[in-house]
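Consider today's protein:

***
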Amino acid sequence: MHSSAPRSPLVPAYATAPTESAESIDAHRQRELKWMALFPAVPPSQARKNKKVRKLLQEGVPSSVRYLVWCHLTDSKARALPGVYAKLGKRPRVPAFAEIEKDAEEGFPDQSRLHTAQGPLVSLLQAYLSMVPDIQYNSGLTSIAGHLLLLAPEEDAFWIFASMMDAHLRTYFSTNTVQIEIDASLFSRALEAIDPVLTKKLYVKLSIAPASITRPWFSTLFVGSLSADHLHRVWDIFLYDGIPYLFRVGLVVINCVRHLLLQADTEEAALAHLVHPPPACLPSATELLVLAANVKLKDDDVRKQRVKMEQQLKRTTQVRPPNGVTNVQTTAISLPKP
C-alpha cells in the first residue's frame, strides 16, 4: 500500500536504490507512516518541543515527506498568507536582482529551471527581499532558497524560507548586524575547548579570522560544503535544535579534516579543506549525526552566550556602517495591502 503523502517536485517517491532489500523499503515506508500519523497529533507550534519529533528526526526523514516535515518544524503554514506571494512577485525588482540571477546559475548549474529571471529561485528571493527590506543580500540566501526549491513547491518553499529566516537566520543577513562575528568568536572558543592544538594552528599560526571559517558554513547552512544526503539530515535536526546545531556540525567537519588542516601551510589551503571537505574524509550522513550529537557542547550555553555577547557589543561599541546609516537593526516587514 502506498502512502498518500504529497510528493516533492524533484524527488522520486522512494529515493531507494534498486538493490535495496524489501526490509529496507518496508522500514522506509514505516518511517513515512509514522510522520503522517504525527502531523495531526503534534501541532506545528509544539513540534520543536516534542521529544517524539526529535527521535523521529534522528531516525531519519523519508525523502517523500521531508519538505512536509520542514513545513511542520518551521510552522510555515501558519505564516502563509493567501495571495501575498503572488502580490510580492509583482513589485519592482530589488537592487540585488541581477546578482541573484548570476548566483542562481553559478550555484545550481545542473538546475536550469532555477536560472531564469522568471524562474522560482529568482522569484522567491525577489519576493522575500521586497517583503523584508532590512536584509542585505549575499549568495548564501540563494544557496538556501535554491536547495529548498529542490524539495518543495515554490510557494511552500517561500514560506519555509521566510520562517527559517525569522526563527534562525535573519540576524546573519540584516544590515549592520554583528551576529555572524559573535557566532564565529563563540565557535573558536568551542573549538579551543575541544582541540587547543588545532585552534592554535588555525587562528594563531595561519592567522585565520574566526568568521572566515564559520561564515561560509553558517550563512549557507552548509550548502556547497556537504553532499545533498548529508545536508538533508543536517537540516532536519537544525530546524529542531537551531543555531547550536550548526556549531556541532562545524566541529565534526573540522575534526574530519583535522589531519589536512595540520598539514596546511596557508590560510587559503586550510579554508579550502573546510569549505569543501573531501568526501572521503566525511562519515556517512547517519554517522555524522551521531558524531554531532556526541560533541562536547552545551547548546543552552551557546544560546546564552550569543545573547550576552550581543548585549556587551551594544554597550561597548558603536558600529559605524557605510553611507551614514545609523546602527539600528529594523524588523520591518513590508506586506502587500489586501
User: Anything to note?
Assistant: The two ends are 44 Å apart (CA to CA). The CA atoms of residues 131 and 334 lie 5 Å apart. The chain has 18 helices and no strands.
